[in-house]
Amino acid sequence: MADFVGAVDQGTTSTRFMIFDHEGKQRGHYQLEHEQIMPRAGWVEHSPVEIWERTSAVIRNAINAAGLVASDFAACGITNQRETTVVWNRRTGRPYHNAIVWQDTRTDRIASALERDGKGDVIRRKAGLPPATYFSGGKIQWILDNVPGARDDAETGDALFGNTDSWLTWNLTGGVHGGEHVTDVTNASRTMLMDLETLDWDDELLSFFGIPRRMLPRIRSSSEPDGYGIALDSGPLGGPVPLTGILGDQQAATVGQVCFGVGEAKNTYGTGNFLLLNTGRDLVRSRSGLLTTVGYRFGEEPAVYALEGSIAVTGSAVQWLRDQLGIISGAAQSEVLARQVDDNGGVYFVPAFSGLFAPYWRSDARGAIVGLSRYNTNAHLARATLEAICYQSRDVVEAMAKDSGVDLEVLKVDGGVTANALCMQIQADVLGVPVSRPVVAETTALGAAYAAGLAVGFWGSTDDLRANWQEDLRWTPSWSEDRRESGYASWKKAVERTLDWVDVS
Asked: The dihedral of CA 188, 413, 25, 457: what is its sign?
């Protein structure tokens, strides 16, 4: 009998394969980073070929290290960096261009033109998203307009589009030899091309970007009893394993955090921060700069929607301290350095490297460090970097309360930055509510495993998943209300200093 479910977690900086048992406990793991390609300022790319190679390697290594074989797995799920755009040839399997990453800003003029031409409101109404460089639609258009032969092949159906979930599924199920070209509703909802009510590609939205419908994947549920296809014997799983779960990474974390009730929320701390609030079967359209998105859809059940606050740069700001400034040698040292001071010394760091996402949606913004004096040290900058993660999350929480009318009582957190205890304490202090981390902090992969396992009966219902959730640590607020509000007011002033830096008209 199969005792495990596997999950591919294809993220912005790395890919991992994780193995879970019935209790939702990790039983195997392997992870590899991939190259961050930055050809010019504002451009961020990945090699799709490298991502597929690293995915194959982590699957094989995790399974071998755990001493398992394909027949030990009931199913496999995939979760992925959303919006990152791959266009490839279905006959050769070769990408036309490097994957254009969600952080990339080269499509800023495409987004601005949509707004200027009055199409922005249509996109908001149908897709729940503002015209922004973040989403896939503009990235597809850029490839079709700038890569020789891509548009002609798209018109004939030879050029295929997908976020990285579709690229991996196509390769796992055969590639050029009949690979399945599919995606799920959560990934499709991040393109500016899907109507949130019909859960299908929308011809009017496609016309805004000049994208042929035939290059798009079929949209399926996030948890599919019939599956998206079978991983081939010759593939990295080493045998036939049904692929039955696909979720974009932040929706996967929502499932992994078992936020199945209306009003339940989670915040994932990774390269960026992503706070999702479950709104149930109701489409709640944001008036405060948030995104309306699909949270998940299990089988033939109605879709569950969410409000999302997406923040572009949080954990990657810590990487910037390490890689570009060289003031820390590793992410863990940011906490050690920041603990050398009791506060930020008046320094505020707004890491708007890719503009500002929610709730501002300003592609003209760029990063700024303000409030510096000769008194300040690298410890103050490290502290300001951790505070920036937390203040950006408060921006989103404030907007979410306005849209939903729900005041947060506790924030469930997950992701790599939650290992930084000082950052989590600052988050509780900045928000004024407790912050709770589960035993399994890497809930993104767990959510993909849950979606796959539910589809094949490995778990009987979401009640089984709730029973698996356990709290590991909780941080409670320690700041006074005056300190909390004074700090947030200074943060808002710092944000204002970043605006109107880049001309995107």
From this structure: negative
d(CA 252, CA 99): 22
H/E element, 125: helix 120-127
Cis ω for the linkage preceding 359 (within 30 of 0): yes
pTM to 2 decimal places: 0.87
Among 83, 122, 128, residue whose Cα is nearest residue 105: 83
Determine contact, residues 134/358, Cβ cutoff 8 Å. no
Establish how many alpha carbons lie within 13 A of residue 345's alpha carbon, considering only the half-sphere containing its beta carbon.
Answer: 19
Token reading at 137: 């639609």
Residue 303 to residues 126, 181, 198, 209, 381: CA-CA distances in angstroms? 15, 21, 10, 26, 43
Please tell me the distance from the alpha carbon of residue 491 to that of residue 431, in angstroms, as a whole number: 13
Return the exposure string of 174-188: e unless at least 16 CB atoms fall within 10 Å of the residue's CB, then b: bbeeebbbbbbbbbb
Tokens encoding 78: 């995939």
Taking the C-alpha atoms of residue 12 and residue 3, their distance in angstroms, rounded to an integer, is 30
pLDDT per residue of the chain (505 residues) written in tens, 0 to 9: 689 999 999 999 899 999 999 999 999 999 999 999 999 988 999 999 999 999 999 999 999 999 999 999 999 999 999 999 999 999 999 999 999 999 899 999 999 999 999 999 999 999 999 999 999 999 999 999 999 999 999 999 999 999 999 999 999 999 999 999 999 999 999 999 999 999 999 999 999 999 999 999 999 999 998 888 777 666 788 888 999 999 999 999 999 999 998 888 899 898 889 899 999 998 988 888 899 999 999 999 999 999 999 898 898 899 999 989 998 888 888 999 999 999 999 999 999 998 898 899 898 899 999 999 999 999 999 999 999 999 999 999 999 888 888 788 889 998 889 999 999 999 999 999 999 999 887 789 999 999 999 999 999 999 999 999 999 999 999 999 999 999 999 999 999 999 999 886 6
